[in-house]
Amino acid sequence: MATYDALQLSYWSQQEQMVQPSCIFRPPTPQAVSKALRILSRYQSTSNVTMTGCQFAIRGGGHTPFAGSANIEDGVTMDMSSIKNVDIAPSKTMVSVGAGARWSDVYSKLDAVGIAVAGGRVSNVGVGGLITGGGMSYFAPRYGFVCDQVLNFEVALADGQIVNANATSRADLWFALKGGSNNFGIVTRFDLKAFPQGEMWGGSVYNPISTLPDQVQAFVEFNNATSVDTNAALINTYGYIPQLRTWTVSNLLVYTKPEVNPEVLKPFTGIKPQLGTTMRLTNLSDVTYEQVRNAPYGLRQLFLTRTYGNDADFLAQVFRIANATLQSFAGAPGLTYAIVYQPLPSAITSRAAVSGGNPLGLDPATGPQVLAMQTIQWTSIADDALINRGAREIWRQADELAVEMGVMREWVYLNYAAQDQDPLGSYGEGNVRRLREVSRKYDPTGLFQTSVPGGFKLWGKNGG
Question: Parallel, antiparallel, or unpaired for β 195-196 and 115-116?
Answer without folding.
Answer: antiparallel
